[in-house]
Amino acid sequence: MTTLSNAAAAARGLYAVDAGPARLRIHHLAELKNKRQRITAVTCYDATFARLVDQAGIDVVLVGDSLGNVIQGQETTLPVTVDHIVYHCAAVSRGLQRAHLVADLPFLSYRNADVALQSAGRMLAEGNAHAVKLEGGAEVAPIVAALVAAGIPVMGHIGLTPQSVHAMGGHRVQGRGKEARKRLIDSAIALQEAGCYSLVLEAIPADLAAEVSAALDIPTIGIGAGAGCDGQILVLYDLLGLNPGFKPKFVKQFAQVGQAVVDALGAYRAEVQAGTFPAAEHTYCDPTPVAAPEPRRAAG
Ligand code: KIV
Q1: Same-domain pairing of 143 and 262
Q2: Cα–Cα 20 to 30 A to 33, which of 41, 220, 251, 283?
Q3: pLDDT digits over 21-47, tens only?
Q4: Same domain, 151 and 265
């Protein structure tokens, strides 16, 4: 049997079974959960990093409102707007071929079903996202249902929800204690019933995350929620060590890219100052022979 290449399958809109999906879609994430294969996810905000993320075979890319922190330098995610996410999502989409692309709905952009439909519609139509993510528990289930009814796949997000930082009294671990555990489990089930295809669990005890993951049919993606989730997500800049000073308990720096950048810039600065950059191989010349100037004739 001939196996279609990923590119050929993509061009024909087919799913190349033997080669794995050319484009990861929401049903592939459900299949990964069923096969007990862990889902890999990262945030991303631009096309250059998106190309690298895709090359690494990451399954899910989130254009998170964490861009407020890591791109804009804001203290919270609250100032991020729909325009900001649409702009970055469109850029990321140009760098991706395989990964499933999710756009975060920012603060107050889904405060009712009409606003949510407008915001989410822009994420898909202008940002080229395949799905949206929104924060909140059972109280946002009607909004999820309205989006899903309009054909917009929704990823939920419970536990520590940074858009509610002030209501939560800071960035604190959630789901501790009997009441809070029950509320979180009830919310997870309500979101699944409302039509979420996946659920982010942020900063909750590992045993609670494992219990939620086992109770749900849809895949869970954890951040600071232990290894019992169906997948993991980290902010790209955190896992690359781009902000070496930022290292909360749940972050592992898989590289020291921040230091590599400082070292490269230091080398550039030194060579410019020494006059060794640009060298001959970085310099253009004009290959057209320059005519020798006419010898001057003596006057008279
Ligand atoms: O905005 C974001 O980056 C997120 C992830 C950390 C889940 O919501």
Answers
A1: no
A2: 251
A3: 799 999 999 999 999 999 999 999 999
A4: no
